[in-house]
Specification:
Number of helices: 20
Strand order of the largest sheet: 1-4
Structural class: mainly alpha
Oligomer: single chain
Shape: globular
Largest sheet: 2 strands, antiparallel
Number of domains: 1
Length: 436
């Protein structure tokens, strides 16, 4: 039945290979079960509830992707999007996390409508791939900076804005240990390197009495502490109606999620040999539909936007070629559902190294930029550098889109089919004027 449903013979694979590929992908991305609750916990969200929501949304999204598109793409709450949710939407804009979840839900509805109308596909064709890569690299720097700051390795400095922390202190020393452990395991291609590194540092912290290993007992009600807590009416009433704040949040969620999906999709399909002869990806509409619906479910469960994971390539590397790989990943996330609340015992210093090295992995996308071509390199650089330095993914996106549009115009390369790029650039300029 599985062979027929997922066309395994046509793709040159077997049930056993697909199941092993699913297990491999799960192990490489299981760190999100620990990291996501602690990132969103900084926004005031219940850690236990977020842990469960992470498993539910990752499980549902991956299974849906496998069944609907038949691609080996696994989904989970996105790194970068969770940082934007916490540090920009909640901490900088001052929105309660319930309202922020409402914004995620509205974004997901917008994604679904735009996908059905074909607009997301238009945006994908209008934005140059170099900006996709730059956003990924910029978010990598942003996440790494958050991790270094959380570990105490980077600290505020009056003279230089930031400086090096005291590495002999317990927190920074443990974080450096975590970096070494994870990096060593990754260089040896050990599956689950992130998770092993997090648990190793946590164990050392518990043993030395630097953290407390005493997870509080939880009940069924605790597991749903974030489910259906989103506040949609308050999200729609930002600044007296559907104001610029809501538009900005939806804008960022849309573009970052879209860029994540396109970058991951191209990497996975190329690695798996699933790209058509003309360079297109079959069943793209189904992929975007699965992503939109998974984001809806994630908002209802109580987590930041769900997106596809580049770790899916690890499953493809061991033979995963169909949606059965994704279904396996989703089933494993569901199986960890009732163990997830134990993440409340993991100290932040244990997850900080994972944030830094996830950021390092995301930086690889910058290799796709032609740094010898100014029209491509300058917008990419501005995008990547403005995200961490302004502490805002939205600012980086806006700088990149505007500079791309301006440089294309002054070089005489603008044409009628670029109308969407200039509409987006005008919106970004309007946003800068409003913020000023």
């Amino acid at each position: 039945m599985l062979t027929r449903f997922f066309n395994l013979e046509e793709h040159g694979t077997t049930v056993r290979t697909e199941l092993f590929a699913g297990l491999t992908t799960f192990l490489t991305m299981a760190y999100i079960i620990v990291v996501n609750p602690l990132v969103l916990g900084a926004a005031g969200m219940p850690v236990t509830g977020v842990a469960v929501a992470t498993c539910v949304s990752a499980g549902f999204g991956s299974i849906l992707m496998g069944l609907l598109s038949n691609y080996p793409l696994a989904l989970a709450p996105g790194m970068g999007l969770n940082a934007y949710f916490t540090y920009t939407v909640v901490k900088t804009m001052g929105l309660p996390w319930q309202v922020a979840l409402g914004c995620v839900f509205i974004s997901a509805v917008a994604f679904l409508l735009l996908t059905l109308a074909g607009v997301r596909q238009l945006i994908m064709n209008a934005i140059p791939r170099s900006l996709f890569a730059a956003v990924s690299g910029g978010i990598g720097l942003f996440i790494a900076f958050i991790g270094l700051k959380s570990a105490g390795i980077i600290v505020p400095s009056p003279g230089t804005t930031v400086g090096l922390g005291k590495l002999t202190a317990a927190g920074p020393a443990l974080a450096v240990l975590g970096l070494l452990v994870i990096a060593t395991l990754q260089t040896r291609a050990v599956k689950g390197a992130m998770l092993i590194g997090i648990l190793t540092v946590a164990a050392v912290a518990w043993t030395l009495g630097l953290a407390r290993f005493s997870p509080e007992p939880y009940h069924l009600a605790d597991l749903s502490a974030t489910a259906f807590r989103l506040n949609i009416p308050a999200a729609l009433d930002l600044k007296g109606g559907v104001g610029l704040s809501l538009i900005e949040i939806v804008f960022v969620f849309l573009f970052v999620d879209l860029f994540d999906n396109v970058g991951t999709l191209m990497a996975v399909t190329k690695r798996a040999g699933l790209v058509s002869a003309d360079g297109t990806v079959p069943r793209m509409r189904r992929i975007l539909l699965a992503d939109s619906i998974a984001m809806l479910v994630g908002a209802l469960a109580g987590t930041s936007p769900v997106t596809s994971y580049i770790e899916s390539t690890s499953g493809v590397a061991v033979g995963g070629r169909t949606g059965l790989t994704s279904v396996t990943v989703g089933a494993l996330f569901i199986c960890t559902l009732f163990v997830a609340p134990l993440v409340q015992a993991i100290p932040a210093v244990a997850t900080a190294p994972a944030l830094v090295l996830v950021g390092a992995m995301m930086m690889g996308a910058l290799a796709e930029v032609d740094w010898h071509e100014p029209g491509e390199a300058i917008p990419a650089f501005l995008t990547a550098v403005m995200i961490p330095l302004s502490y805002s993914i939205a600012n980086g996106l806006a700088f990149g889109i505007v500079s791309h549009a301006v440089l294309k115009f002054v070089r005489g390369q603008a044409c009628a089919r670029d109308w969407l790029v200039y509409v987006l650039a005008a919106l970004c300029v309007g946003r800068f004027i409003y913020l000023a």
